[in-house]
Amino acid sequence: MNESQPPSGVIHSDPEILGGTPVFIGTRVPVQTLLAYLAGGHPLAEFLEDFPSVTREQAITVLDEAKRMLVSGARAA
Predict the structure, then answer these.
(1) CB 29 within 8 A of CB 51
(2) What pTM value is reported for the model?
(3) How far apart are CA 46 and CA 54, in angstroms?
């Protein structure tokens, strides 16, 4: 998988859905909403409760992929 591409089967971007904003597949929930919840100090469980169309597996996959991309992109000082 190319590092700039979202995880296959978890994120979808379509100009017909929210103007191409990356969303969780099968939903209209932007991935950015998950990141904003976590950055705001809200637990993953709260996000999943507020957006029941997103599965825990989808959210964890996105977070794991983001972590992988950050770690692989880190350069030693």
Answers:
(1) yes
(2) 0.79
(3) 12
Say how far apart CA 32 and CA 77 lie, in whole Å.
30
* H or E element in which residue 34 lies: helix 31-39
- CA 40 to chain CA centroid, nearest Å: 15
Q: Extract the tokens encoding 73.
A: 């992109």
pLDDT at residue 7 greater than cutoff 60: no
pLDDT digits (tens, 9 = 90+) for 11-44: 999 999 999 999 999 999 999 999 999 999 999 9
Cβ(33)–Cβ(23) below 8 Å? no
For residues 10 and 68, the answer to whether their CB atoms sit within 8 Å is no
